[in-house]
Amino acid sequence: MKFAVLVFLVLGMAALVFAGIENGLPGNFLLEVQSIKDGFSSRQSESGDQTLAPDSLRRLQGGTSQSVLTLEGILQWTNSYRRAAGLEDFMQNDKLNEAAERKVQDMFEKQYFAHETPTGKNVIWFANNAGYAYIAVGENLALGNYEDDKDIVRAWMDSPGHRANILHSRFTEIGIAAREGTFEGEKTWLAVQVFGLPKSSCPRIDESLGMQIKLMDMILQERRLRLEQMRQELQSYLVNDAYYQELVRAYQSLGEEYNTDAERQKSDTDQYNTQVQEFNVCVQGF
User: Which tens digit of pLDDT belongs to each residue from 128-141?
Assistant: First the structure.
């Protein structure tokens, strides 16, 4: 019998840097948003995602061709181990069930037993394709004729990598699939557990506010350039020139408008930064 385990983590990290106004003239505004990245665990794959995937295991004895595995039983025994460890039960999630079911079907259809499909798709793809919004997802796989639901969960628990997924304190939801079929010419079972920490578990980042800040940053940059052009133009006129006074009034008006929007930008930036910091604290606990 064979096993495999995988965990993926998505971290959203962002930072906004704001410099204020000096001498009543526009200052610099720097907007920096770092990209979202995948990654968790001890070994990095060629694709850049970090994976936790111990070597596949095969049990030489146990189980028969009459073995029957059930979603309900696997969930029951999985949660019994969590309760024994002082953890909350996993909540079943329909979208994770769909991801697990599609993975089982795909492995039978394409005759592979691995966290990545022959075309390079992993648990992230299956979760996304099922419409599951997550902070982190993980995956346990099993292949073989186990005696029953208790037997397969016990086998996972005997493997450190699979046990870590089952007893991970941050995973709260699970999807399960178990199917009997033909694999490499033999009648056998394939089982999948997909674990998840839903995105709703961490404080929300208002992405519309982030886009608003980016847009205002561009507007402020344009106004800053215009103010500099006006300042240089003023230096070419005499103070008592009629156009000079008109240009001064326009310069002051645009400067006041700039400063008002700049103060609002600073407030929005502070609010956005607070959201990002709270989100990052939540994610870093994984």
Answer: 999 999 999 999 99
